[in-house]
Design a protein that fits this description.
This protein is of the alpha/beta class. It has one domain: 3-Layer(aba) Sandwich (Rossmann fold), CATH 3.40.50. Helices cover 27% and strands 28% of the residues. It has 5 helices and 12 strands. Strands 5-11-10-6-12 form a 5-stranded mixed barrel. Helix 1 packs parallel to helix 5 and helix 2 runs parallel beside helix 4. 34% of the residues are buried.
């Protein structure tokens, strides 16, 4: 089985890389092997553009049985505990469109520039094809933006417009590439902060990264050669 783990920044999966370095054979930089499980790490850089480019280039060169997007995220619901790890079951672009004269936002689907049901979209969303069959983590609906929200007025506006649980800067680009290329994938995110007027003193990056990497390590340890059939 060949597994690709995609992250925007190296620090988000640094503990996992340390684990792999100790417990797997490093066959080349960023690639590890143990028995029949090969793991490749891909650091794309932050944001949708770099994610789409880096992932698309990688998938054009190498075939993978499963691709995982791992990283941190902000949660809209303050009842979600910091450090929680979720599986993303759908994602969508949250700021691709136009700002109207009255300050409101009209997205690309509402403009008619991209049909909301044009593949791979479903009602403007990128939906995980087997999300309901994978239940090892709580589920979350993602919203992907170029500018994360940190002002109460814009937070309220985006919450009123979209049905989303978490916000990232890469998730929808990852979903789009994987769906277009027909590869099996998972989106796994750990909550580092609540989406509120920006105050990094309220964040807990360390806990989010710790819990994210614990889930990734457990997932890797549970992958057996026979499991590759469900992702092939």
């Amino acid at each position: 089985m060949h597994l690709l783990i995609v992250a925007a920044t190296p620090f988000e999966i640094a503990p996992l890389e340390g684990y792999l370095s100790k417990n797997f054979q490093e066959i080349k930089p960023g690639q590890y092997l143990k028995n029949n499980l090969k793991i490749t790490l891909l650091i794309t850089g932050v944001g949708m553009t770099l994610t789409a480019y880096s992932l698309g280039k990688m998938l054009a060169q190498v075939s993978f049985d499963l691709v995982i997007n791992a990283g941190i995220a902000g949660a809209f619901d303050r009842r979600v505990k910091l450090g929680s790890v979720v599986q993303v079951i759908s994602d969508q672009f949250g700021d691709l469109g136009v700002e109207e004269a009255d300050g409101s936002f009209t997205d690309i689907h509402e403009l008619g520039l991209l049909e909301s049901m044009a593949p791979p979209f479903q009602g403007g969303k990128l939906v995980h094809p087997i999300a309901q069959e994978i239940t090892f983590l709580p589920s979350a609906k993602g919203l992907t933006v170029n500018k994360v929200h940190g002002c109460q007025k814009s937070i309220e506006a985006i919450r009123n417009k979209y049905d989303a649980d978490i916000e990232t800067m890469e998730g929808a680009a990852f979903f789009l590439v994987c769906k277009m290329e027909g590869v099996q994938f998972l989106g796994i995110r750990a909550i580092s902060n609540h989406i509120e007027p920006r105050n990094k003193d309220n964040w807990n990056l360390a806990l989010a990264i710790q819990n994210l990497n614990a889930v990734l390590t457990e997932l890797i340890n549970n992958l057996q050669p026979a499991d590759s059939k469900q992702y092939s």
